[in-house]
Amino acid sequence: MMPGTPATPLSKIRRNLYSTPGGSKVHEEKILVTVRLRPLNRREQAMYDLIAWDCLDEHTIVFKNPNHERPANPYTFDKVFGPMCSTQKVYEEGAKDVALSALTGMNATIFAYGQTSSGKTFTMRGITEHAVKDIFEHIKNTPERDFVLKFSALEIYNETVVDLLKRKSTSLRLLDDAEKGTIVDKTQEQIVQDGQHLRQLIETCEAQRQVGETALNDKSSRSHQIIRLTIESSLRESSGSVKSFGASLNLVDLAGSERASQTNADGTRLKEGSHINRSLLTLTTVIRKLSGVKRCGHIPYRDSKLTRILQSSLGGNARTAIICTISPALSHVEQTRNTLSFATSAKEVTNTAKINMKEIARLEAEQRSPGPSYFMSILEEKDLKIKQMEREMEELKRERDLAQSQLESERKVKKVQKESNQFGPSAQVARCLSFPGENETVPIHSSDTPQSQTRAPVQRKAMVRRSVTSTDPSMLVHEIRKLDERQRQLGDEANRALEVLHKEVASHQLGNKETAETIAKLLSEIKDIQAVRSIADESVTGDGANLKDEITRWKSQAKDIQSLERKLENVQKSIDQLVFSFTNSEEISECKTPSKKKKILPFNLSNSANMQHLIRSPCSTLTPSRKVMEYETENKVPENNDAMPSDDTVVGRCKVTPPKSDKSFKEGSPAVQHSNTVNVKKMQRLFKNAAEENIRSIKAYVTELKERVTKLSYQKHLLLCQVIALEEDQEAGVDEPDKIDESLPETWQLTFEEERKEIVMLWHLCHVSIIHRTQFYMLFKGDPTDQIYMEVELRRLQWLERHFSDLGNASPALLGDEPAGSVSASIKALKQEREYLAKRVSSRLTADEREMLYVKWEIPPGGKQRRLQLVNKLWTDPHNMQHVQESAEIVAKLVGFCESGEHVSKEMFELNFAHPSDKKTWMGWNLISNLLNL
Ligand SMILES: Nc1ncnc2c1ncn2[C@@H]1O[C@H](COP(=O)(O)OP(=O)(O)OP(=O)(O)O)[C@@H](O)[C@H]1O
Predict the structure, then answer these.
(1) Which range (95-109, 441-455, 610-624) has the least confidence?
(2) What domains can you pick out in the chain, each with its CATH number?
(3) Which is one Pfam family of this protein (predicted)?
(4) I need a surface site. Which of 55, 116, 239, 745 has the fewest CB within 10 A?
């Protein structure tokens, strides 16, 4: 049994037919698709071919299964014409309506599509004849209009366009016109006098057309023929204002759609076949693409002459009817199936025809003598207006409801504020989001009275919860502003540091050519940072801005922050390069002496102090205080600063050090030369050491700036989470705090488990630091007071996941080896963190513990980098909570974190980042001369 194409119920084929002439200005409708089944021809009869198709009704055709197996699926179309059906009926029901649209100013196209000998030419001749008759009939019956009818005819043969009106036509070029689309250059057009004249012209063209004999058709049309009637009409002067239409009617008789092999083609026929098929293949592709559920992607109109010329008829400004002709013979069943499949696609294509008015005076003209279409259009306009007003009313209602719910939630917030007196939600928000030290009015646990301590967990939970869900918008605006200020400060500090670096290095002419280049690069980066900052400055709105404006502005600034981060990253790279160039110059000079020198600048990544800076996933929880200590050690200014010689003296000495003016040196006395060489070397080393000191200092400083920018950006993310929550709650009018209080603790444990699973999954998807995961996992075990931490963590992770997905337009987990932007930064940071932890395996675990773990985690004995292999396996299976638990235990051991919360307290998860002023800020560049200790 052969499979059939599933039928489309007729009810699903949306048709929008309308009587001719008239209709609305823009008309969206599907292509009218009909099928005509011809009788068996003599050849087929002679071969005792069987009839393979049955017309079930006026719309349905089905394959008659000769083996009487399972019935095949029927095909449904706008109309199916059986073998006994007259061409007149085919015209009336399958072409007339579309064809006569051209009289009302709409482009129209009638196609005949089918395999050779299926009856295309036979059908199109009849259609053309009837259409011509009707057109002239209409002209005769419409005396108030002037009609101009022009005739032209083209043939596409072997992908060459020729003019059928010219006896010896050369190939015509296709040109693109902005208004008309593709036009055929220099086509001859004849003004048609009357019906008789038109028939003559058609005959002339038919005679000109490429016809040949194929195995299936003695007079097979070997080309695509397009007869084009251009109809222009205008109202006569006596009727007042002028209304002018212009439209074309294309009558297209395509060449046979069969495969070349089926026509026993060789030589010329084969060449024709390939060209014919190119046009038909493109036509099929175009139709298939246009019929897709979503009409998107590239439609290859330009791939063939046929589709270029008929572009507007295929999904464009035209009404189109396709008559698919088929043979009933069983021997042609495959071709017939192909044709029906094409027809099935074609019926899904939608065109948007419009009346091509040359002068828009229609309304005035029709107002004087209004016809039915005038009233129709007035009604349509009214309908539109009513719909618009309904929409506006809906919008107003929505706004009113929103305002009411906002008012309601404001009232509730005020009520809660009164009740909890000292712990107002605004204060809580400030505490949640701000740097310690800024909100001294907010008491911290240690200062609570015993009474308040017993009350504290519940109150605190409710308040923190409220801070996330029911916040005064003006408070959030204030917080956003504060974060902006931090961003600006960071920008300023970065600039200051870099400018001084530039001046200092330039004035002392340190380093070689690469150094100079690096400095130049740094300078341009400074400019970039300034540019970023000035953009941010420009976008700051006035104090009166509302929350929505702030959010919009902040969202637009997200790029600035990223950009600032990138700049700082570049600056760090440049500094590394600078350090490298110093090291190189040092090595070169050292090479001259046989003694082996150790490398001086320990800035490589394996340096454990610097390693700390690299663990900087947004969720990194390395405590600022620890880092500050490291920076302090690194940036320590030499204690004997005060005892150093004054600038002038040293600079003076520096200036005299290069012995250019020293005559004895020039003369090259060996003794003097030796002593000077020693001095120069010593001086060089001192310079270098001093420069290193400063570069080390600025490097650490830039690293810190980067961290601060990252945290700043993270704080903003959290703020956004709060804003989203606020908006959601306002929209829903949910009284969250009360609901939560009531629901606890019965449902909390369940919720906790669920949330924890989700958090673990999101950690995995967002490549969050495994130290952070461990600390969080170990600290929050389901205590009711953990609720807020869980929710904040969940919200921030959800935000991050969405953000990553937006960046890569895919889930971060799916980004694979080529992740984008911050996803890649997180993956990199995680990788570095695993390397860092691997190094701690030996020192933190005993040999026995290690061996046990290797066995348990299936690390092969004698394998390379077993420690790293082990760490790489940790936190990799978010679905397995046992795995999660065990991973957490190992990481906790490696970082020296135990459940009691050594180094870590729950409060740190509230994002209380240290205030910049608490941190070691860059104390300014130490003049190299100050650091010289001669
Ligand atoms: N519906 C029909 N009723 C009677 N005869 C028909 C019908 N359709 C086609 N024929 C006859 O079948 C023969 C082939 O028809 P026609 O030339 O129109 O086929 P075609 O599809 O144009 O083929 P080609 O692609 O090779 O040009 C002609 O002799 C024609 O008269």
Answers:
(1) 610-624
(2) 10-361 (3.40.850.10), 473-722 (no CATH), 723-918 (no CATH)
(3) Kinesin
(4) 745
